[in-house]
Design a protein that fits this description.
Layout (H helix, E strand, L loop, with lengths): L6 H9 L3 H7 L2 H14 L5 H13 L7 H8 L4 H16 L3 H7 L32
Helix pairs in contact: 2-4, 3-6, 5-6
Length: about 140
């Protein structure tokens, strides 16, 4: 688990964040999503620790890929439950801000480039077409 940060250190990190992450960090929707996830999974007693872990990801001190491991080790959640919680948090909270997260972690997200496809001409076997009637 990442080290604990003082209030002063936290605000230094916060000041460097992109606005999208600042908004997500204190958004009511983020808190509501975390609460709903904890309620669905039956881990309401761990709500505070999960909020802290989500916050650590959003300020850049805990990689989102390590979020599930942190839930398993620090909160002593079973692997399946930690995986379910991590997946829901990723879908509801981390995915909408993935580009900003990639920037603070120094990773580029590759854009999906679709190759333009030219219409292909049908190929015909060489020789006479036996399916057509002769023209008179």
């Amino acid at each position: 688990m990442p080290k604990k940060y003082t209030s002063k250190q936290f605000w230094k990190l916060y000041d460097k964040l992109p606005q999208e992450l600042k908004d997500a960090l204190f958004a009511e929707e983020t808190g509501n999503n975390i609460h709903e996830i904890c309620t669905r999974c039956g881990i309401e007693e761990n709500l505070g620790e999960i909020v802290d872990s989500v916050g650590q990801v959003l300020v850049g001190v805990l990689a989102s890929k390590d979020f599930q491991k942190t839930l398993e080790k620090e909160l002593k959640l079973e692997r399946g439950l930690a995986e379910k919680v991590a997946q829901e948090v990723d879908n509801l909270i981390f995915s909408p801000v993935k580009e900003s997260l990639a920037k603070i972690y120094g990773k580029e997200i590759p854009e999906k480039k679709e190759k333009p496809t030219a219409p292909q001409k049908p190929t015909y076997p060489p020789g006479q077409d036996t399916y057509r009637e002769p023209i008179k």
